[in-house]
Design brief:
alpha+beta; DUF1407/YfgJ-like_sf; 189 residues; single chain; two-stranded antiparallel sheet; membrane; 2 helices
Length: 189
């Protein structure tokens, strides 16, 4: 998953999202994809030759030729941007259900976040499908690493926190009114 900047509100969002999760604005296809620098983590354009902060050099993606129109394209694209010719990948990349990082099939733990990846019944019981994109994610994930959707638990927690804030605010307001009542009552006597 790469991050892009919403042209309406400026927040960083998943490039897989159809709409901004913060302001709801539709995502423009023309937005440049941002990726984190593997050295310092600064978000930079995917096409950059080196990191703008630390100068880390990027290895250019392998160029392939579209068999339909002959246009040079980057390895890993799903279809030719010129003619739309679909490329069939041998396998969907395996991603960590916790952080979304692409991982090797042989990995027992995610090299990025350390999440245990061994496939067994115990591990599978720790996974759920994201309601927005349907991909497997950790039950503990607050935000889907694939599409950026907040989990139901995270949304409920935020809603619950907002309700608590409203109740506390109301109680403070009521206490203030009671204090004013007694203050005016004592002044009139």
């Amino acid at each position: 998953m790469a991050l892009i900047k919403c042209s309406e509100c400026g927040n960083m969002i998943s490039d897989k999202s159809e709409n901004c999760i913060y302001c709801g604005s539709p995502i423009s296809i023309s937005l440049k994809t941002l990726i984190p620098c593997p050295e310092c983590g600064t978000l930079i354009e995917e096409t950059a030759e080196k990191c703008t902060k630390c100068g880390f050099p990027f290895i250019p993606k392998k160029q392939l030729e579209c068999p339909e129109c002959g246009k040079e394209i980057n390895e890993g694209v799903e279809e030719c941007p010129e003619c739309g010719f679909p490329f069939i990948s041998s396998k969907e990349p395996i991603r960590c259900p916790e952080c979304g990082k692409e991982i090797s099939e042989q990995s027992k733990n995610c090299p990025e976040c350390g999440y245990p990846l061994e496939t067994n019944e115990n591990q599978e019981s720790l996974l759920i499908n994201c309601k927005a994109c349907g991909k497997a994610i950790s039950k503990e994930a607050e935000i889907c690493p694939h599409c950026g959707q907040k989990s139901d638990e995270k949304i409920e927690e935020e809603y619950s926190n907002n309700r608590i804030d409203v109740v506390v605010g109301f109680l403070q307001f009521a206490a203030g009114l009671v204090a004013l009542y007694f203050m005016f009552k004592s002044c009139s006597n």
